[in-house]
Amino acid sequence: MKIFSGIQPSGTLHIGNYLGAIKNWVKLQQDNDCVFCIVDLHAITVAYDAKKMPQRIFELAVDLLACGISPQKSILFVQSDVKEHTELGWILSTITPLAELERMTQYKDKSGQHKENINAGLLCYPTLMAADILLYQTQAVPVGQDQKQHVELTRTIAHKFNNTFGETFVIPKPLIYNTGAKVMSLTDPTKKMSKSAGPDSYIALIDEPKIIAKKLAKAVTDPARKRIADKGHPEKCNIFTLHQLFSPAKQISKIDKDCQSAKIGCVGCKKILTKNIAQELAPFRAKRQELLVSPQTVKDILANGAKQAQNQASSMASKVKQVMGLGLSS
Question: Order of strands, edge to edge, in the sheet holding 2-7?
């Protein structure tokens, strides 16, 4: 199956990014034809530091490779290195009703957050995302619930294009994972884990065990449990949810029982979780250090990925222009 997914170079990755997207990507590449993209063009729809962007792109590439994305199994490249993304994005914007773009939840949210910079790029974000997906004859797009609406619009755009100009695009479907799809903030479990809430609200993939322990020590647990003698309610505790994502099944079962019977307190529960998270992230940190001392290797992987992506994208872009009657060659 042909898979496409992208991620913005927005800074340090945290365990929400890892569990909700990247860990699934690593699994998908084993048995599928995967194209993974660092979507820097999407990232510039909000204010950013142009001097820091190259380093953010490089570090994200390092992190993805350290997590297990393999250039032997998948194509990994930077969006702006393949010009067909913006070309097709413009073309698709000409057949997309303005009302469809204005109703996008992400546009409404970001417009509210960035009132000083409500630009056309924010509005046309979904048509560029549709181009990202449709260029590669994508069959499935692994996304979180917050991006599902954009994939549905991509399907609508593809259907409209096919009906207007003839069968051209494969109609992609959203591929949504329930496990780990929404990791909650350590400081406010009612909200999704995000860097915007401050460093204590998330666990970064690069955090050392001591830092992980410090953050978990402050993390909010079952609000009804005030003392170790109080019986816990694991189903209401964000720490137990993280155990379900990082701890072995037998250990999870024991923690569940011990918590409900007050045999284990929140401190003990957090210590076990700290060890398990640190253990899972240890290979990532080690691989990351290897890649950081060999920057040219990372740049070569991205350059080669861009060439592979370009070959596929240029073929689709030519087909699109041909069926639309664009250019002398049509």
Answer: 74-78, 33-38, 2-7, 140-142, 173-175
Sketch out the chain's domains with CATH numbers. 2-182+294-324 (3.40.50.620), 195-288 (1.10.240.10)
CA dist 165 and 52 (Å) reads: 42
Distance CA 220, CA 33 (A): 40
How distant, in Å, are the alpha carbons of 73, 214, 224, 258 from that of 24?
Answer: 14, 28, 34, 31
Q: Is pLDDT of 264 > 90?
A: no
Rounded Cα–Cα distance for residues 259 and 160 (Å): 54
> In this structure, what DSSP letter does residue 20 have?
I
- What's the whole-number mean pLDDT along residues 280-304? 97
Is 327 a residue whose pLDDT tops 90? Answer: no
User: What pLDDT is stored for residue 165 in this prediction?
Assistant: 98
Q: Is the pLDDT of residue 26 over 70?
A: yes
Task: Inform me whether the pLDDT recorded for 181 exceeds 60.
Answer: no
Q: Report the catalytic residues.
A: 110, 192, 195
**Residues 65, 298: Cα–Cα separation, whole Å:** 8
| d(C-alpha 206, C-alpha 209), whole Å | 10
Classify residue 185 by burial, with Cβ atoms within 10 Å: 0-12, 13-18, 19+. buried
Distances (CA, A) of 195 to 79, 167, 215, 226, 273: 23, 42, 13, 28, 21
Q: What is the pLDDT of residues 101-133, one digit of tens each?
A: 988 888 777 777 767 778 899 899 999 999 999
Q: What is the pLDDT of residue 219?
A: 95
User: Token pair of 292, please?
Assistant: 């950081």
Instruction: Say what the alpha-carbon torsion angle 43, 46, 50, 53 is, to the nearest 10 degrees.
Output: -30
